[in-house]
Amino acid sequence: MAAVPAIMKTTAARLSALYLVLFSLCAVLLVFYMTGLSVRMLTVQTRETITEEAQGLAAAYQRGGLPYLVRMVERRSRQPSANLYLITDPNGRVLAGNVESLAPGVLDEAGWTTRPFAYQRYGEGPGAVADGRHTAMAHVFRLPNRMIVLVGRDLGEPERFRSVVRRALVVAFGMMGLGALLIWYVVGRRALRRIDRVSEASRRIMGGDLSGRLPVSGAGDEFDRLSASLNAMLARIAELNDGLRQVSDSIAHDLKTPLTRLRNRAEAALAGQPDPAEYRAALERTIAESDQLIRTFNAILMISRVEAGHSAEAAEPVDLAAVVADVVELYEPLAEQQGVALVAEAGAVPATVEGNRELIGQALSNIVDNAIKYSAGTPAARVAVGLAQDRTATRITVTDNGPGIPEEDRARATERFVRLEASRSQPGSGLGLSLAKAVMKFHGGRLELAAAEGGGLAVAMVFSSGEGR
Amino acid sequence: MEPVATPSDFAQDFGYKVAMKILLIEDDREAADYLKKAFSEAGHTTHLAADGETGFALADSGDYDVFVIDRMLPRRDGLSVIAELRERGNETPALILSALGEVDDRVTGLRAGGDDYLTKPYAFSELLARVEVLNRRAGSKEVETLYRVGDLELDRLSHTVRRAGQEIVLQPREFRLLEYLMRHAGQVVTRTMLLENVWDYHFDPQTNVIDVHVSRLRGKIERGFDRPVLHTVRGAGYVLRAE
Question: Does one domain contain both A53 and A15?
């Protein structure tokens, strides 16, 4: 039964115990109140009976005098479970009745005895008065000839009633307590076992198995919801972890090359003839290359920041039409210089999303930048930026008529540092689409790559409408 | 590959005369020494403070033209230093340097009272250009209605640009670009600064989008005139200046 103390440690068991105590308290108070009430009613009834009897005896005395009264009392005394009767002379000598002895003082005062008293009937063993074996209440009155008459009734009946109720109470509460313990045991053990399974799974995950997940029973209860939330959290952690690993891999891979080149250039400059002009040229190239490195580095940091963040805070309404107009205006001279026609497609609708204007602008810039870069050189190169909104989503599309990306490569195109074979010769860090993807995720949307009509690439920034952002 | 601007290029090539007194609050000793040396080559004097408390005391008592404040400092963080200075009525322009990486750090920094924000790692030429533009002694932060550089005039009220009396027609964005350059005439402005102030986007323009805009503008204000007014500063940005 080592499980019982463990059960007592559960919150559920503690709460149940508290409720049980409070409930029992209320129940006990209620039952005591009710038994008290019933006993009082019984007492009132007893008084009425006694009063009637006393009146009857008084009437008998008036009709037939003392002998008649004594006969009547003798007769009534012999009946089974009779009331108590006693007639004494003023000196206390017994004339008739079924009471052998009384608690002292009862007969001294006429009227109702204020409290139950002990008595002993004829035929009972001595000592009943001292034991308090019987208690009764009585009415005492004097006859005109100064004889004292007592009519009383045993209080055993209400007392029995009270004790029966108490016994029933004890049994009922005992059973209730036992039942509660049993229920705690069954429910608590069940809960404990599920919690143990969750702990076990967490330990496994902590042990390094990041792909492990907590068990979900499918019942859809609190435990399932908790496990599902924790699983979602684990998935997010795993994703961030993968991202981190990918960043460090990418840094190792893609930043090592320029760093090595940087170092070699400095070394080569030092190895040659000391010539200020050459030194200066080498240093300039070094700085320019470091700047490019810084730029790449900043881009990586930016992506990590965006991926680690979420848009709930600092979200504000962003006018997408304005962002599209800004970016097209920003890139138009560059496009013209590259021989690419950059157009904002007619029919741009006013569309507003909750989010971060800077990030959306930067993401769109990267996509447009890419589109211009890759379509330049195509005859009649054209990049179109469109904005459309329907009930489920708002999308900004950038369509070019460049070489496009083969379908099997499209998914990889948004990964960090991935520059597809065909574009290795192009300048750039290879981070543009990754940032755009991160930004869309930040806004609860997605980045879609598809083939454009005529062979180019169509990139869509899709913001889900309504509450989901 | 584009040539690179060194600190002294700013001073020598463009005869930048406004020497500044800079307070640099930065706990990284090596970075601080480097910045001090580089600022001095550009003709500016720098005082160093290695923690927030010392920095605040110096800033509060000294007479500086610009504060350059690292965001994370021992004993007291940079933002609270700026916030308290502002509370005490010290309006000296402050540039915040930050290695922090949240998306809206920039907004937080500016809200605390900073005037500009630069994320590490950065190129020194970027920092220098920004600090020089912040300098209150340059006196060009005031928004005027008429800017004049040599024979080039820009009237903000009538939205007209003239050179040697001859009207030049500019697109709205070109007008804003020229307006910004003229407001900071004689000071180097970087591409990032242009993107921030003319387009209101705060990111590093990866390709030469800004250069193309500038060269378009240059075509309009220089074609047909003898002397250039819009100069490229190698590796840093642009400066508008009459020769």
Answer: yes
Q: Which CATH architecture has domain B7-138?
A: 3-Layer(aba) Sandwich (3.40)
DSSP assignment, residue A121?
E
pLDDT by residue for chain A (469 residues), tens digit each? 445 566 566 666 677 778 778 877 887 887 788 778 877 888 888 888 888 888 888 888 888 888 888 888 888 887 777 788 888 888 778 888 777 777 777 777 777 775 667 676 776 655 555 555 567 778 888 888 888 888 888 777 667 777 787 788 778 878 877 887 788 778 777 777 888 888 888 888 888 777 778 888 777 788 888 888 888 888 888 877 887 777 677 667 667 777 888 888 888 888 877 888 888 888 888 887 887 787 777 777 777 777 776 655 567 888 888 899 889 999 999 999 888 999 888 565 778 888 888 889 989 998 998 888 888 888 888 899 988 888 888 889 999 887 777 777 776 666 655 544 444 344 455 678 888 888 888 888 888 888 877 778 889 999 887 544 3
Query: Pick from B101, B204, B216: which is nearest to A305 by CB?
Result: B101
Please check whether residue B96 is in contact with residue B69, taking contact to mean a CB–CB distance below 8 angstroms. Answer: yes
From-to residues of CATH 3.40.50.2300 in chain B:
7-138
Q: In CATH, which of 1.10.10.10, 3.40.718.10, 3.20.20.140, 1.20.1050.10 is domain B146-240?
A: 1.10.10.10
Q: What ipTM is given for this predicted complex? A: 0.81
- Residue A82's domain spans which residues? 11-159
User: Is residue A84 assigned to a domain?
Assistant: yes
Local structure of B80: helix, strand or coil: helix
Question: How many Cβ atoms sit within 10 Å of the Cβ of residue A141?
Answer: 15
Establish, for the pair of chains A and B, how many residue pairs have beta carbons separated by less than 8 Å.
87
B121 vs A361: CB contact, 8 Å cut-off? no
The 3-state DSSP class for residue A113 equals: coil
Q: Are residues A302 and A341 in the same domain?
A: no
Q: Is A304 on the interface with B (CB under 8 A)?
A: yes
Asked whether A438 and A306 are in contact (CB, 8 A), the reply is yes
The model's pTM: 0.62
Neighbouring residues of A1: CB distance < 8 A, sequence distance ≥ 6: none
- Chain B residues in contact with A285 (beta carbon < 8 A): 1
Q: Is residue A451 part of a domain?
A: yes
What is the spatial distance between Cα B229 and Cα B212, in angstroms, rounded to a whole number?
17
